[in-house]
Amino acid sequence: MKPAPPFHVGDRVRTAQPLAALPLGSCGTIYRAVRAGNLYGVLFDSEAILRVLHHDDLESAGHQQRTVEQRAD
Structure pTM? Predict the structure, then answer.
């Protein structure tokens, strides 16, 4: 099986499985990437803190844009 391509800073992602305090499908933006461990710093739309997650916990959200309500937070 071919490995999933890495995410890049600025990519929109969502959770691929429920995580602590983050339901399945929670959307955010990649702010940091540590390629050696496939780890990413993600700022989720619903939170004001940066979370570090493994590549396997994330999937691409494509070109999904944040809504006006989410930007106001």
Answer: 0.75
